[in-house]
Amino acid sequence: MTKYLISNCNHFTAEDVYFASRAIVNEGIVIFPTETVYGIGANALSNRACEKIFKIKGRPADNPLIVHTSSTGEIEKIADVRMIAHFQALSRLWPGPLTVILPSIGAVSSSARAGQDTVAIRIPDCNLALELIRKSKVPIAAPSANISTRPSITDSVYLKSNFDGKADVIFDAGKTRYGIESTVIMPKGDSCIILRPGIYTEDDLSEIFTKVTFSEDLTDSPRSPGTKYRHYSPSKKLYMPGSTEELIKIQEKFPDKYAIICVSETGQKIGGKNLILMGSMKDPYEIASKLYDSLMKFDLSPYEEGLIEPISGNGIYLSIMNRIKKAAIPLKEGEL
Ligand code: TXA
Ligand code: MG
After folding, report:
1. Are residues 189 and 242 in the same domain?
2. Which structural domain, as residue segments, surrounds residue 197?
3. What is the best residue among 53, 176, 182, 184 to mutate for testing ligand 1's pocket, by most ligand atoms within 8 Å of CB?
4. With a threshold of 0.85, does the pTM exceed it?
5. Residues 262 and 322 in one domain
6. Torsional sign, CA 261, 265, 266, 267
7. Among 99, 105, 149, 289, which residue has the most ligand 1 atoms within 8 Å of its CB, making it the best to mutate?
8. Do both 27 and 170 map to the same domain?
9. Is the CB of 63 under 6 A from ligand 1?
10. Which one of 224, 227, 230, 292 would you pick to mutate in the ligand 1 pocket, going by the greatest count of ligand atoms within 8 A of its CB?
11. Is residue 17 part of a domain?
């Protein structure tokens, strides 16, 4: 049976965290909030525990998990940071939405690493998550808490229908702060490669590294194993037109046929009851925090198909567009 614990990143009881830490130590599964999205966690040192995560999510066994720790001291026990230039400067971005790929020094289970000799590590910026890691006395492997290929969960209202009876403990902590997953980077000498863009942007990383590149832009660069799989998709067909103008044209041609996920400025131009608004184009944090929730709302809506507005821009806008591109089917002009 799943135990539900009402809490949030800043309000939780020592008893509840102790209860959840026992589940981790006993190779159980705990769903907990982070500042980005909910994580589905297990003892990172135990193959048996981490294998349960893969099974519950339906995640391919070759896609490694992110290991969460509560301090850089703990990172040094599971990864070799000596050769990493600028590790000190990078550590200042923690606790925070940054995941760094580091050489593994053994202790993390091969299941969590999906057999790689590297390990993805982050220190989340959520006191509840940090306290859970401390009390468990082990690092916690936790991918996003969602069934594989589906949108990540950023609001606890969606946890029960997906994980009731599968997780031992679920922290019911409302909405998460940022709403999209951490930036994943691979440091390489004086440069770094962004494997997955997130809230920490190219500009933030350029203050630390002399060269910052996106893995998508390089032909010979490492990719996260996860990038070859479908992601973040609602269960219904969601299309992405090439531009906002194209989206408006389709809506004019077929009013009320599609659910329309768009920013509020575009929503004002369109009008209509089929809109799901992601927030203002002026506030990328708002769009990020509403993106997955909008995909969930579309799935629950009476519309069988949907359209999502493409978002242009750099920084966080680019990270949002990275998720939209993976969630939606691109449309050619005039295709609908
Ligand atoms: O914000 C987040 O990062 C959330 C919260 C729960 O911390 N976690 C998360 O985990 O998004 P997940 O499993 O959904 O995404 C992890 C990504 C995947 O694309 C995976 O392929 C990549 O990190 N990854 C993990 N270990 C790696 C490694 N050793 N080398 C390259 N990529 C790795
Ligand atoms: Mg994920």
Report:
1. no
2. 3-214
3. 184
4. yes
5. yes
6. positive
7. 99
8. yes
9. yes
10. 224
11. yes
Residue 299 covered by a domain: yes
Ligand 1 atom closest to the CA of 116, numbered from 1: 29
Ligand nearest to the CA of 140: 1
The number of folded domains in the chain is: 2
Q: Is the CB of 288 under 6 A from ligand 1?
A: no
pLDDT tens, residue order, the chain (336 aa): 999 999 999 999 999 999 999 999 999 999 999 999 999 999 999 999 999 999 999 999 999 999 999 999 999 999 999 989 999 999 999 999 999 999 999 899 999 999 999 999 999 999 999 999 999 999 999 999 999 999 999 999 999 999 999 999 999 999 999 999 999 999 999 999 999 999 999 999 999 999 999 998 887 777 888 888 878 888 999 999 999 999 999 999 999 999 999 999 999 999 988 999 999 999 999 999 999 999 999 999 999 999 999 999 999 999 999 999 999 999 988 888
Find out whether the beta carbon of 195 lies less than 6 Å from any atom of ligand 1.
yes
CATH code assigned at 243 = 3.40.50.11030
Note whether 137 and 274 are same-domain residues.
Answer: no
CA–centroid distance, residue 198 to ligand 1 (Å): 12
Ligand 1 proximity of 103 Cβ (cutoff 6 Å): no
Do 46 and 159 belong together in one domain?
yes
